[in-house]
Amino acid sequence: MQIKVLGSGCSKCQTTVAMIERVAKEQGAEVEIIKVEDREAILSHGVSATPAVVIDGRVMHSSGLPSHAEVQAWFTQAAQAPGFLTQATRHLFFTGKGGVGKTSLSTAAALTLADGGKQVLLVSTDAASNLDEMLGIELRNTPTPVPGAPGLSVLNIDPDTAAESYRQRVLAQMGATASDTELSTVREQLSGACTTEIASFDEFASLLSDNDGRFDHIVFDTAPTGHTLRLLSLPKAWSGFLDGNDRGASCLGPHSGLKMQEERFKAALEALSDPAQTTVILVTRADKGAINEAAHTSAELHELGLHNQRLAINGVFHASERSDAVARAIEDVGQQALDAMPASLRALPQDRVPLRAFDTVGLPALRALLSPDAGPVAPPTTSAVQAVDKLPGLDALADELAAAGHGLIMVMGKGGVGKTTVAAALALGLVERGKTVHLSTTDPAAHLASTLAGDVPGLNVSRIDPKVETQRYIDKIMAAKSPKLDAAEQALLLEDLQSPCTEEVAVFHAFSRIVSEGRSAFVVLDTAPTGHSMLLMDATGAYHRQMMREFEGPGAARVVTPLMRLQDGAYTKIILVTLPEVTPVSQAAALQDDLRRASIEPYAWVLNKSVLAACTRDPLLAARLAGERKQMERMANGLAKRLFTLPWLTVPPIGFAELSKLVAKASNAPAGSD
Which residues are identified as catalytic? Predict the structure, then answer.
């Protein structure tokens, strides 16, 4: 809970601060007190008499000392529910770095609102959503009531279903006079990955522009940050592209068909920008990387016109035994990250959700997540949680990978599980074993540079930057086709290439280019979180099918597509990264199933952030370790053909020295997580 005390720093201000601290201690409340003495900052809150107290952006008191009962009332009110519930707008967006708990918080918020008598629709825009597991129901692309939660319905924007529905609408708009050739041409235009993106956005936009009042609140559980920023930027991007443009055709079919969606796009943009309708909840953890990404996201959202933002810090941990070195280190690292929080985030209304002893699966756990009555954790009934047999670390995995001499190593998994740490460490391990390595990322919210924190001789580091790749692709197409076109046709081609969906095609071409480099050296690819990566895989499959059609028949030249390279186990090694919790393990298993359906077999799993071997005495951590052991046994008993581990580390593995410890040969040093 964040409380601002506004004033000159006089004795009354100091007394107010002391009273708040005393009541917080009495009630066992977590509180961060910020003293605001700048006159302009005080006036910005509409305060003219001090000392004043501001909680979650609201002025709770001004002029003179507050009473003890008044301060107690603030804590009682704050304990009832987070501010994103007590001040809930119709649209609530939960976004943030992968793994910070967006799905848990958004689902718990939707459930709490429904329990309060509201009609609530919970929507997932994440292609790798685990809402089905959390709620115990099958997700559909239509609102589905949640058993045991009257008033709550859930909807999953399924990309494939949305794309097919979109194709049928566009084809229907062409009318009965369209020839078979014209219809066939449009079907081909609508077969790409960018059609899937715009179709998903079309479903999303329809929810924002829906004013029929069926639902009091629509809660969005979004994909990790990079993909979400892309989604939220589409209303402005498509509105600008369609403005005055009703001719030509793109990979989304005739522009005239798109024009019919223009009003919906504009309505979606207006709803997103209206603070009375939409609140964006930036979810983070007490983690430097997650906090910095939240700050970056906040700035980008402001640029898009989304100014009504809140900050939710999830999984805040306080050691109950300061003598426990592991628990103390976890708390200290988190507190250091919070102390270094950028000013832009400190200025936002803030909610803090404590770390719970349970996994947020099932309605009882979800209801308890935001409840102030969850209470302290009792010590486990067993005296200790036994560790499983010691698993090999990343050093052993680096040895195995180096034996191949060259190839592609793709590090995949749910957002927030530590893919970037694993990818960077493996790349360094290969360099230290005398290999030439290109380390790259397909993640729109890439963190490679901050993880490595410097240049490494023998390691080439790059990023597939969507904007750079899009311009490169446009320049390439224009250079190839312009000589055969007149000025008007060139202008029309350039106009088509400047549509937002061109980015998806350009990123795929860059991905294909990097994949091919594995023929002569090592390429380590830090992929985007699962949902976005699977869309890239879909594009890879579509390109493969197209090439096979074009080059089939006797005498045809042999074609090696990117998909064929991914299917070649000697060329490509897929590393799945997960955490020792039920949902991340289930999602990694689902990703493995998806890859196997594409005839791509994962090479190994890496279990990150394990504290099982630390033998902590902290009651909360010990309660969570029993569940961790079950997940380790689950992976070892059939899910993973090869299993490697990274124990939790008190020093974050950032920079060459710390990352190198994870892959050093015969290293006995503890490994870590990001």
Answer: 99, 101-104, 126, 583
34-39 CB contacts, 8 Å cutoff, 24+ apart? 34/2, 34/3, 34/4, 34/5, 34/346, 35/4, 35/5, 35/7, 35/9, 36/4, 36/5, 36/6, 36/7, 37/6, 37/7, 37/8, 37/9
Residue identified by tokens 């301060």 is 71
Q: What are phi and psi of 526, to 5 degrees?
A: -85, 105
Residue 301 pLDDT: 85
More confidently predicted of 534 and 650: 650
What's the rounded Cα separation, in Å, for the pair 250 and 497?
8
pLDDT at 385: 39
Summarised one tens digit per residue, pLDDT across range 97-107 is 777 888 899 99
Residues 6+ apart with CB under 8 A from 434: none
Going by DSSP bridges, is the β-strand pair 604-610/120-124 parallel, antiparallel, or unpaired?
Answer: unpaired
Q: Decide if 331 contacts 621 (C-beta within 8 A).
A: no
Distances (CA, A) of 651 to 79, 553, 595, 669: 33, 58, 34, 12
Question: How would DSSP label each residue in 514-570?
Answer: HHHGGGTSEEEEEPPPHHHHHHHHHHHHHHHHHHHHHT-STTPPP---HHHHHH-TT
Report the amino acid identity of residue 666.
Answer: A
The strand pairing partners of 439, in sequence order, are 461, 524
Closest CA to 282 of 266, 267, 301: 301
The answer to whether 168 touches 202, Cβ cutoff 8 Å, is no
430 in Cβ contact with 398 (< 8 Å): yes
Q: How confident is the model at residue 446 (pLDDT cuts 50, 70, 90)?
A: low
CA distance 468 to 461: 16
Q: Is the pTM for the entire model greater than 0.70? A: no
* Residue 407: per-residue pLDDT: 92
| pLDDT surpassing 90 at residue 663 | no
DSSP 8-state symbol, 317: -
Contact 579/612 with Cβ under 8 angstroms?
A: no
